[in-house]
PTS diacetylchitobiose transporter subunit IIC (Staphylococcus aureus), 87 residues
Amino acid sequence: LNGLKGIGGNVYNGTLGIMSVMAPFFIGMALAEERKVDALAAGLLSVAAFMTVTPYSVGEAYAVGANWLGGANIISGIIIGLVVAEM
């Protein structure tokens, strides 16, 4: 069972874990299209703002921890996508 737990964790991080990075992009892009401004720029800026506020230091290595991706950080991703697209 422990072997499957490692595989399941990788599947989670590869699918649902990446959702918190995709949400600001697509929300910012959709809102920008509605406001008739550059949608791609709004999406990219939303992801950049999301990565800026996400803690990225894990011990001695500088990386985004897996606990900050997925459901744990999706709400902040949605809020950032909405705020950045409005700017």
About this structure: The longest strand covers residues 57-58.
